[in-house]
Write a structure and sequence with these properties.
Layout lengths: L1 E8 L4 H11 L2 E11 L2 E10 L16 H24 L16 E6 L3
Antiparallel strand pairs: 1-3, 1-4, 2-3
Keywords: DNA-binding
Protein name: Putative ovule protein
GO molecular function, one term: DNA-binding transcription factor activity
Length: 114
C-alpha cells in the first residue's frame, strides 16, 4: 500500500482528474481523506494496485528478487509522484493559469506495507 499526500489549490475537476490518473496507472484507492480550507485542498490517498486491471503482474511487491524489486518499486513510486504532480499543476481554467496564491503545491509518497 502507498500513502500519497497532495496539497494544492482546490478546483472543480480535481477529484475527477485524480481518479482518471489513478485508473490510468492501474491503481485503486483504499481510503481517501480530503480536507479543504480557504480554496486549498489536501488529499491523503491510500492506494494499491488494481489487481483486476494488472493482468501482467508488473507491480513490484512480493517478488523474490529484492534488488530488482527495490528498483522497480522506486520506478513505480516516481511514476505515481510525477502523475500526481501533473494533476496538481493543471490550471483551474483561469486566464492567467494562476489564482494568485503564493502557497506552493506539495506531494509526498510513503510506501506502506501490511
Amino acid at each position: 500500500m502507498i500513502k500519497a499526500s497532495l496539497c494544492c489549490e482546490d478546483r472543480s475537476d480535481l477529484l475527477h482528474d485524480l481518479i482518471k490518473t489513478l485508473k490510468s496507472l492501474r491503481l485503486k484507492t483504499l481510503k481517501a481523506e480530503i480536507t479543504t480550507l480557504g480554496g486549498r485542498v489536501r488529499n491523503v490517498l491510500f492506494i494499491t494496485r488494481d489487481q483486476q486491471q494488472d493482468d501482467d503482474n508488473t507491480w513490484p511487491i512480493n517478488d523474490n528478487d529484492n534488488d530488482n524489486n527495490d528498483d522497480q518499486m522506486q520506478y513505480c513510486l516516481r511514476s505515481i509522484q510525477e502523475a500526481l504532480k501533473e494533476v496538481m499543476e493543471k490550471s483551474n481554467g483561469n486566464d492567467s493559469g494562476n489564482s494568485g496564491s503564493i502557497k506552493r503545491q506539495r506531494t509526498s509518497n510513503n510506501n506502506i506495507h501490511y
